[in-house]
Design a protein that fits this description.
By secondary structure, the protein is α/β, with parallel strands linked by helices. The chain contains 16 helices and 9 strands.
Length: 369
């Protein structure tokens, strides 16, 4: 996997402590002064060459370090350490937090597309499992092919907002994409998150400040383009602080959905800039009209429809075979879903999945006597 610079910070060798730096400068000073010694000192008699260690020690004794030299070296080491702190960008963090971020000192890896054929295979696998998600699959397909044609180091997919009725597996589509890419996938239920804090984290100073799911996913996997799924984003709340400030999820996502600002995104918790421009965002919604206009401008809704009866029964047959259900059970479920009385209720994948699970429980349950 290719690697890209991910964090705007400098990491120095932790073994170069104050003592190590002082020792190095003293050794350098002795070497410089050694060059000024007369040849008779540097070239001892032949009968003294048998004891090299004593010769080195004698030279060390000759080239001493005065108190003034010690003071100068200590001042220089102090300035070096101060400069390192100023340029690291991590001095404001606690030691534990600095150590956590050290996994990113060599950059983060990118999941990439091998060639255009790989992009075609990815789209074909998605379409085979969920043909009713064709509009979303087409966007991913073109993005994957474009990433390869333009020579991008990794897969770059624009933010997706999947708009459609409940029960058509919008979030499963995102999980399946992550599975096919072998990418870390994090699913956030917008209805259960405390506004933006669960995703982007909360600022230091809050009693319960913590990193968000976004940076945690990257830290744990070392992948710069994970799949981040936000389910039912239109239902996220916007809590207010005691000072009247609002912390809406949609507003917190705006800088992350814009490539230019996401490239230097500042984490509220670590207060360090990260390159989040490669993250694959997939948002799901049942009613996009409740979302703010700036978010819709960054990711226009992809309109999805209900499944047809043929697509629903096809899903039941594929999923039933994966669960090793008998043909009798599978066809019985298909007959129920095709009954005229259910046509007005638009049976969803959730209903089909419950039927499949019930059939599996009955077939694998104990024999009743």
């Amino acid at each position: 996997m290719p690697t890209i610079p991910f964090i705007e910070a400098r990491f120095f060798d932790p073994s170069e402590s104050r003592f190590e730096l002082e020792t190095r400068l003293k050794r350098r000073l002795r070497m410089l002064r050694c060059k000024k010694l007369p040849p008779s000192v540097l070239m001892p008699p032949d009968d003294a060459l048998d004891d090299i260690d004593s010769i080195d020690q004698n030279l060390m004794d000759i080239i001493g370090i005065s108190d003034d030299d010690e003071a100068r070296i200590q001042r220089r080491v102090k300035r070096i350490l101060e400069c390192r702190k100023a340029t690291s960008g991590l001095e404001h963090l606690k030691r534990d937090d600095r150590e956590r971020l050290e996994v990113l000192k060599d950059g983060a890896r990118l999941i990439s597309i091998r060639n255009e054929h790989h992009a075609d295979e990815l789209a074909a696998a998605l379409h085979k499992d969920m043909p009713w998600m064709a509009p979303a699959t087409e966007v991913v397909w073109h993005a994957a092919r474009r990433s390869w044609r333009e020579g991008c180091p990794g897969l770059r997919v624009p933010p997706l907002l999947l708009q459609g009725p409940p029960g058509i597996s919008k979030s499963f589509f995102a999980r399946r994409l992550g599975e096919l890419l072998s990418a870390p996938t994090s699913v956030i239920e917008a209805t259960g998150e405390n506004a933006s804090f669960g995703i982007v984290g909360s600022q230091r100073g809050w009693g319960s400040s913590h990193p968000g799911r976004l940076i945690e996913t990257v830290l744990q996997s070392g992948i710069a383009n994970p799949v981040m799924v936000i389910d039912e984003i239109e239902k996220a709340g916007s809590p207010e602080s005691m000072k009247g400030q609002t912390f809406g999820l949609a507003e917190a996502l705006l800088p992350l959905l814009e490539p230019m600002t996401a490239k230097r995104w500042s984490c509220p918790y670590y207060q360090v800039k990260f390159d989040m421009s490669w993250v694959i965002w997939i948002l799901t919604s049942n009613d996009y009209r409740r979302l703010p206009e700036p978010l819709l401008n960054r990711c226009p809704p992809i309109r999805l429809r209900h499944l047809t009866l043929a697509e629903l029964t096809g899903f039941v047959r594929r999923e039933g075979a994966k669960r090793n259900l008998s043909g009798t059970s599978i066809e019985a479920i298909c007959e129920v879903l095709a009954h005229p009385s259910l046509r007005q209720h638009q049976p969803s994948l959730r209903v089909a999945n419950r039927m499949l699970q019930r059939a599996a429980d009955l077939e694998q349950g104990p024999t009743l006597h």
